[in-house]
């Protein structure tokens, strides 16, 4: 059993770098990561876990899970630094991280092409991690707690109907080995659990990048908004602080962030050459954001589902994923942007796209 020791997550001054994605998404991501010069953390032949977000998405809704081209850029950057990347995710309440799911999330062809292993974190030996002030423990994969393993958080960028926003810290919640994550929702401790998982498996690198942001009622029902930026940081707190700004969310209202920063200001150094997210993109994303009042509403409405039998959740609910895809396309997808099958930063320049429908 591992007991958390108190430490200051705001001790060192973190760095943030932001750039626009050019015609090569992987190249843009790899170039941004190189600016942070993290070879000591990610190189030296050490294994590096690339933690993606797959379990919270829906098939056919690319903005609801990690962008495969962004993952490719992370793999290239880790290899360039001398590390040995592997992609990973843990089982979720209703989903098992198997080959079929990897294919539905468009990740399987990438892994084969790049020769990278995928690791189901729920199948690794786990450790009982007791956060400060807790009586119970979280089941976390020992591999990600090992000091010789680097960790990269590569989330989907989306609003979240129970936590406000999914960014680097929320992504680490998905690393909890326990499949029955409804237990954390039942106990009303979802924010505390997200915060504790992020502290325990503090990423060495956080990559907030995607061709589209998932607006409105993530993690599943997303209004797709063209994004095309890459924001990287050596601190998950700094990454999420910057991410809340472009997601149109008040970071002071994101409880898991407030827990980990202790209510203090999160400051960071913006590296030379960093760009600002353009005002139009910010405005379009902000129109889809959900505020604290809506979060409280959805938490109350969704609460009964977490008492559905554990086996029923992962045996039967996945069979109805197609209905979620259909509902998303009917009620949300048409309010946003079409998925850019051939990537171009289309909304730059003089062409002003329409704002998302209310």
Detail the topology: elements first, then pairings.
Elements: E1 2-3, E2 15-20, H1 25-34, H2 39-42, E3 47-52, H3 68-81, E4 84-89, H4 99-104, H5 108-114, E5 118-120, E6 126-130, E7 138-141, H6 142-145, E8 150-154, E9 158-160, E10 164-166, H7 168-173, H8 182-186, H9 190-200, E11 205-217, E12 221-233, H10 236-247, H11 255-261, E13 269-270, H12 279-286, H13 292-302, H14 310-315, H15 321-331
Parallel strand pairs: 1-6, 2-13, 3-4, 3-8, 4-5, 8-11
Antiparallel strand pairs: 2-12, 6-7, 9-10, 11-12
Describe this entry's structure for a reader.
The chain is of the alpha/beta class and 358 residues long. Helix content is 34%, strand content 20%. It has 15 helices and 13 strands. The chain has helices at residues 25-34, 39-42, 68-81, 99-104, 108-114, 142-145, 168-173, 182-186, 190-200, 236-247, 255-261, 279-286, 292-302, 310-315, 321-331; strands at 2-3, 15-20, 47-52, 84-89, 118-120, 126-130, 138-141, 150-154, 158-160, 164-166, 205-217, 221-233, 269-270. The strands form three sheets. Strands 5-4-3-8-11-12-2-13 form an eight-stranded mixed sheet, sandwiched between helices. Helix 1 crosses helix 3 and helix 9 (190-200) packs across helix 11. The N and C termini lie far apart (49 Å).
């Amino acid at each position: 059993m591992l007991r958390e020791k108190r430490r200051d997550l705001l001790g060192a001054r973190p760095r943030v770098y932001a750039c626009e994605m050019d015609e090569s998404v992987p190249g843009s991501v790899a170039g941004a990561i190189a600016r942070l010069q993290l070879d000591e953390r990610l190189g030296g032949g050490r294994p590096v876990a690339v933690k993606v977000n797959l379990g919270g998405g829906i098939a056919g809704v690319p903005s609801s899970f990690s962008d495969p081209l962004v993952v490719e850029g992370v793999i290239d950057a880790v290899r360039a630094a001398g590390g040995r990347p592997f992609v990973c995710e843990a089982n979720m309440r209703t989903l098992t991280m198997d080959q079929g799911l990897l294919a539905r999330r468009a990740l399987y062809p990438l892994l084969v092409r790049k020769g990278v292993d995928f690791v189901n974190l729920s199948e690794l030996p786990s450790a009982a991690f007791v956060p400060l002030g807790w009586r119970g423990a979280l089941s976390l994969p020992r591999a990600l707690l090992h000091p010789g393993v680097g960790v990269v958080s590569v989330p989907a960028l989306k609003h979240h109907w129970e936590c406000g926003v999914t960014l680097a810290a929320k992504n680490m919640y998905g690393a909890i080995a326990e499949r029955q994550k409804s237990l954390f929702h039942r106990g009303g401790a979802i924010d505390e659990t997200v915060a504790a998982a992020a502290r325990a498996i503090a990423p060495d690198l956080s990559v907030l990048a995607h061709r589209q942001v998932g607006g409105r009622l993530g993690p599943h029902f997303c209004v797709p908004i063209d994004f095309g930026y890459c924001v990287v940081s050596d601190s998950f707190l700094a990454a999420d602080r910057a991410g809340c700004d472009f997601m149109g969310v008040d970071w002071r209202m994101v409880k898991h962030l407030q827990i980990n920063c202790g209510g203090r200001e999160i400051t960071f150094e913006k590296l030379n050459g960093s760009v600002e997210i353009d005002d139009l993109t910010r405005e379009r994303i902000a129109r889809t954001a959900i505020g604290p009042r809506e979060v409280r509403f959805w938490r109350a409405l969704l609460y009964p589902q977490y008492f559905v039998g554990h086996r029923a959740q992962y045996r039967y609910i996945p069979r109805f994923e197609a209905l979620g895809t259909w509902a998303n396309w009917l009620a949300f997808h048409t309010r946003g942007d079409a998925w850019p099958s051939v990537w171009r930063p289309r909304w730059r320049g003089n062409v002003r796209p329409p704002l998302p429908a209310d």
